[in-house]
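agent> Task received from the user: take the single chain below, predict its 3D structure, and emit structure tokens. No templates, no multimer pairing.
agent> Plan: (1) validate residues, (2) run structure prediction, (3) serialize to tokens, (4) report one or two observations.
agent> Step 1 OK, no nonstandard residues flagged.
tool_call: predict_structure(input=
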Amino acid sequence: MRFQSVHGLATTGVMDAVTWTTMTQAALRDQRDPMSYNVVVVNQALPQKLKLYQNGKVIFVTLVNTGISVAPTENGTYPVYVRYVTTTMSGTNPDGSHYSDPGIPWVSYFHGGDALHGFIRASYGSPQSLGCVEMPFADAQTLWPHTPIGTLVTVL
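)
tool_result: status=success, residues=156
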């Protein structure tokens, strides 16, 4: 996905003919990925924390909130597949009511409707979301440039 994104291709994560041809041409020209290799690790043990690794070294740590028991954040490793500087998030609460939250900043979707993003809460470090990984606005802004499409997010 990251290669496709860097080369202006559809970010499907599938090795189709166009991706293969573009990758072969890049290899023959010795073109390298211009970005560092970043990985995000979200630890759901209390207090919940996110660590950003750049080329194998931790460069950023913040407290986060993950999903509540009826809407958990699933463990696993997932690629960031779409990003927004700001967006409206909407869906259904556990009680069946609808929510629509405009102006959610620094959003990187990584698994279905789950995303890394800024969200205002009284505290951070415990399950409070509907599956997303929430953090203070300033921390989400710091993280966002390091989560281009294809960045792996591991939830433990």
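agent> Step 4: summary for the user.
Helices lie at 2-6, 17-28, 137-143.
agent> Done.
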